[in-house]
Amino acid sequence: MKTKSRKNVITLKKALEQAEKGKYAIGSFSSRYTGMVLPILRAAERLSSPVIVQISQKELERYEIEPKEVGEEFYRVIESENITVPAVLHLDHTKDFKVIEEAIEAGFTSVMIDASEHPFDKNVAITREVVSFAHSKGVSVEAELGMIGTTDFIETDKDEELYTDPEEAYQFVQETNVDALAVSVGTAHGVYKVRQPKVDIERLKAIRTLTPVHLVLHGGSGVPSEMVQNAMKIEGGGISKVNIATDLELSLLAAINRETRMMNEEYKLLSADLKEKARASVEETVTDKISNFLLSKDKKSGFEY
């Protein structure tokens, strides 16, 4: 449960309203190890940037972390480091309603229900149920329409891709009252090894023309900054949240000369020296993304609560 209510810990809806107006995106940085929460928030505070700390159900399982652990570390850092920038704690790709309940209990201010593998009507029904529950708790909801591919299977189970249909996006948002929509427009989760990232700007424009919902780009790691920034600047508001996961973990592992991932408990057992190297590398990566990719540096000053 949240330890203390702070004005700057906000919902995803409130954060993305500001980003969309300002034509920038807020980075949703994945904390696959609880030790990554500190450098993510430190970088955002130093650069005066709004920030989202996230973790997905798949990551919780793969790295053996409980939502409560992430929540406790998030609020500990918010207090101990006196973080003053707008900050969201977000549960990413999740299939299980029980995990959503646990995350909200742990103080997450935003959750994502991913029922995109189901037919449209079932996706709507599942999403509507989560929206009803989360909104009653004052928590924002992100959903997915279309299917975003993957290369590493850490956040999702299948590498299937189905682009988001603009007409369906309009209907989906109308029927679910969802706060943010992850759209499939050419990016993928993981490392781009063979396929090349792309962003279908015309599809994004068509979605924006039909619905005012806040748009989310998953698979931000490895995508050229110009491509993402073009998507952010679409008339009427483009992409306002970009998920970044793989780049962060790769920078952490490289800093400690490790090629394979570990469990969260294994990370905790690293020496103080290795942890410091890991923190510094993650903070540097987040700094680069905020400054050169998301254009969210110094946006705290214009933020309205």
Automatic annotation (TrEMBL):
Domain of life: Bacteria
Cofactor list: Zn(2+)
InterPro entries, A to Z: Class_II_FBP_aldolase, FBA_II
Xref: PANTHER family: D-TAGATOSE-1,6-BISPHOSPHATE ALDOLASE, D-TAGATOSE-1,6-BISPHOSPHATE ALDOLASE SUBUNIT GATY-RELATED
Entry protein name: Class II fructose-bisphosphate aldolase
Organism of provenance: Evansella tamaricis
Phylogenetic lineage: Bacteria, Bacillati, Bacillota, Bacilli, Bacillales
